[in-house]
């Protein structure tokens, strides 16, 4: 009986609350939506749009009422049911043990699978996979800086640009081959990483983020305006394609297809590029995994947890930060030169802030605990972005909504528990709530 | 001349630290005896932690000299006021803990102790290059580091929690872990900032045992800031008392306990009442 009374009370309260919200919406939206100025002959006229206003107020009233009834003023909020229906947090260890190798196997077999199952979309799928893998590699590179060392870098795309332009310019001016330029681009990017690192070492948190953001923009603006050297907004075209141990992917008789006695097909080069970026990304991951188990990796993580304690233990925090910047930048540089050779054309437009934000979003959404999270996030973000191509301008809306939902569901990213680098008896994952986020 | 002045491991001479107009430490001189436990005590705001921060390089003193004599028979000395904080830890081997515990909370207990041995391991891994390639020298160095970590974990009673995150430990265990982490850097001088703060009497006793063990078995000199008088009186060989950045007393625990100016500083009496307090103390002593 009492339950019924309180239920009806609750309903009345909910309606009243929703009505208040509706009234406030009416007050606010009245001038915003209800009235519209138009340029009439001989002055300014006002049109009224009562229909649109009614819809806006109705949406607010109904939304508030529904939220009251099903989420805020009920014993069984619908959000709780959704949370229960959601899969439990993927536990880093076990999940990774099965899922990681599975994804790796899939990645290696992908060209065969697409050739067999979707022959007409083969090229499209492989191109998309190459794009995803490029972002996976960039994500893994940035993971060193943001995930391990806890330094928020908003200008990571600068190193990607340095790598791409290094290869493009060295090929253009000196005719160097891709395989020679790949390590050079990595080294140049690492040097830029150190160059950026030095002045910003004293900065922490937000300040560091702002300076790195500015650095990313400086690189882009220089590339844009140094017309004689970089070609400015026209970019650089005709960047040489990579060869397979000296064999070009061309139609002539010295080409790859002729050498192996195959019919020439443009897909050969795509498959080659796919395996190239796959191997580059895997090298990035293996080196990162290795570094995590070395003193330098532990020092990065210790730096993220507590910089002052690091200094009290004799760790040179300046050099430790610089190595994180340099190694992260180096992998960005590798990815950049791959990007240049794949596209055959680069311009400053490919290295805008949006790219930095996207890479950072991949790392953060993936979770700072594991490299596997970065892969999932890259597939979801880049793949999802492609999937919603038909939605045109609403794509960003869906994208933002998805990000908000993921962050509400798993605030520390998809896989956020951290695997210890060394153990005595058993490897126990460290819960995300204990792991520091870094302060700079 | 007291015995701690004869062959000190650390001598602080005319140390002055000013923050703008505020004089936090005013012409302070004292010695830390070799292989002894020296306590730095004083009321809140007396400048104890500032002294620590000057010794460990977190602050650059305005004036004065801080000299570390690591070897009994002279040899190399370090002028700490000229060195950066991480150099003091790495080269002069002065280790410290913090008043508000600064562990690497998201890392396991064992990892905390491994980070403390960073510099040795870096050398063994040939500054990471050898480590990436997997040279054998690094593996044996890592093994040694693990053994040292296990040794200290055994002594602080945390061996079976080695693989748990440091932030999950109870407060007292965190305090002990921070000391163990400092010990893993193989210090000459161990500086502890309020190691007994927040400990219950049993934990406080364990701490006394641990500090005695470090002094007796490893011959490490200890400088500690402490409010808990039971700790100070039981284990200190030498007590230095600060008030408003000045040294007001210096001696054995017994001497300091009966020093009227110390009592005055702690109880907060007016200068002209000091004599009355002195008389009272003397009366009580009889």
Q: What report would you give on this structure?
A:
The complex is a heterodimer of chains A (440) and B (286). Chain A has 440 residues and is mostly helical. Chain A has two domains: 2-85, no CATH class; 100-434, ABC transporter involved in vitamin B12 uptake, BtuC. Chain A has 17 helices and four strands. In chain A, a hairpin with a 2-residue loop joins strand 1 (35-40) and strand 2. The longest helix of chain A is centred in the N-terminal third of the chain and has 33 residues, at 2-34. Chain B has 286 residues and is an alpha/beta fold. Chain B is built from 13 helices and ten strands. Chain B has helices spanning 3-6, 48-55, 85-90, 109-116, 118-124, 129-133, 136-156, 171-183, 201-218, 229-235, 253-257, 260-267, 274-285, and strands at residues 8-19, 22-33, 37-41, 63-68, 78-79, 94-96, 189-193, 221-225, 238-243, 246-251. In chain B, the strands form two sheets. A six-stranded mixed sheet of chain B has the order 6-7-8-3-9-10, sandwiched between helices. Chain B has a four-stranded antiparallel sheet with strand order 2-1-4-5. The radius of gyration of chain B is 20 Å and the shape is globular. At the A-B interface, helix 11, helix 12 and helix 13 of A face helix 3, helix 4 and helix 5 of B.
């Amino acid at each position: 009986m009492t339950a019924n009374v309180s239920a009806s009370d609750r309903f009345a309260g909910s309606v009243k609350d929703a009505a208040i919200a509706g009234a406030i919406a009416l007050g606010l939206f009245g001038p915003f939506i209800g009235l519209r100025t138009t340029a009439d002959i001989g002055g300014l006229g006002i049109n009224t749009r009562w229909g649109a206003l009614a819809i806006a107020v109705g949406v607010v009233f109904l939304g508030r009422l529904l939220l009251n009834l099903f989420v805020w003023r009920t014993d069984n909020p619908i959000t709780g049911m959704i949370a229960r229906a959601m899969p439990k947090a993927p536990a880093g260890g076990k999940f990774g043990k099965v899922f990681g190798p599975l994804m790796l196997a899939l990645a290696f077999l992908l060209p065969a699978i697409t050739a067999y199952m979707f022959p007409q979309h083969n090229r499209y799928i492989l191109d998309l996979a190459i794009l995803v893998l490029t972002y996976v590699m960039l994500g893994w590179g940035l993971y060193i800086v943001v995930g391990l060392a806890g330094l928020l870098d908003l200008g990571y795309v600068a190193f990607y640009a340095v790598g791409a332009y290094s290869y493009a310019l060295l090929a253009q001016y000196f005719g160097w081959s891709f395989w020679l330029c790949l390590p050079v681009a990595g080294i140049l990017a690492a040097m830029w990483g150190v160059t950026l690192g030095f002045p910003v070492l004293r900065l922490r948190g937000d300040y560091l983020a702002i300076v790195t953001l500015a650095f990313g923009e400086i690189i882009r603006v220089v590339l844009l305006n140094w017309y004689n050297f970089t070609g400015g907004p026209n970019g650089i075209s005709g960047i040489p394609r990579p060869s397979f141990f000296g064999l070009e992917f061309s139609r002539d008789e010295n080409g790859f297809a002729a050498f192996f006695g195959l019919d020439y097909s443009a897909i050969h080069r795509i498959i080659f590029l796919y395996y190239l970026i796959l191997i580059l990304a895997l090298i990035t991951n293996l080196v990162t995994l290795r570094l995590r188990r070395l003193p330098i990796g532990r020092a990065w993580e210790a730096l993220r947890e507590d910089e002052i304690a690091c200094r009290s233990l004799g760790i040179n925090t300046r050099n430790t930060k610089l190595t994180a910047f340099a190694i992260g930048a180096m992998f960005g540089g590798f990815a950049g030169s791959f990007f240049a050779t794949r596209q055959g054309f680069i311009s400053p437009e490919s290295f805008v802030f949006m790219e930095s934000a996207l890479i950072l979003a991949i790392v953060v959404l993936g979770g700072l605990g594991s490299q596997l999270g970065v892969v999932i996030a890259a597939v979801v973000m880049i793949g999802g972005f492609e999937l919603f191509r038909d939605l045109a301008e609403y794509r960003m809306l869906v994208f933002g909504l998805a990000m908000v939902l993921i962050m509400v569901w798993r605030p520390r990213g998809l896989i956020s528990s951290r695997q210890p680098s060394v153990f005595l008896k058993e490897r126990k994952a460290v819960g995300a709530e204990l792991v520091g986020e870094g302060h700079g | 001349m007291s015995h701690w002045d004869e062959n000190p491991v650390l001598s602080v001479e005319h140390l002055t630290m000013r923050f703008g107009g505020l004089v936090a430490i005013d012409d302070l001189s004292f010695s830390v005896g070799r292989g002894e436990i020296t306590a730095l005590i004083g009321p809140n705001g007396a400048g104890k932690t500032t002294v620590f921060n000057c010794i460990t390089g977190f602050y650059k003193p305005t004036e004065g000299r801080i000299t570390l004599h690591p070897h009994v028979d002279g040899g190399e000395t370090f002028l700490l006021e000229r060195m950066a904080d991480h150099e003091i830890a790495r080269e002069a081997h002065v280790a410290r803990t913090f008043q508000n515990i600064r562990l690497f909370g998201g890392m396991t207990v064992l990892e905390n102790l491994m980070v403390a041995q960073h510099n040795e391991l870096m050398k063994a891994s040939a500054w990471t290059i050898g480590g990436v390639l997997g040279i054998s020298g690094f593996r044996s160095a890592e093994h040694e580091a693990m053994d040292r970590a296990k040794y200290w974990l055994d002594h602080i009673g945390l061996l079976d929690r080695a693989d748990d995150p440091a932030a999950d430990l109870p407060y007292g265990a965190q305090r002990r872990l921070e000391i163990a982490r400092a010990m893993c850097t193989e210090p000459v001088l161990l500086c502890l900032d309020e190691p007994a703060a927040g400990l219950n009497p049993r934990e406080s006793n364990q701490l006394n045992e641990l500090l005695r063990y470090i002094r007796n078995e490893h011959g490490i000199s200890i400088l500690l800031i402490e409010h808990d008088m039971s700790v100070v009186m039981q284990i200190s060989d030498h007590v230095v008392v600060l008030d408003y950045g000045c040294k007001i007393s210096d001696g054995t625990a017994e001497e300091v306990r009966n020093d009227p100016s110390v009592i005055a500083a702690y109880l907060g009496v007016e200068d002209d009442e000091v004599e009355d307090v002195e008389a009272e103390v003397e009366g009580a002593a009889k």
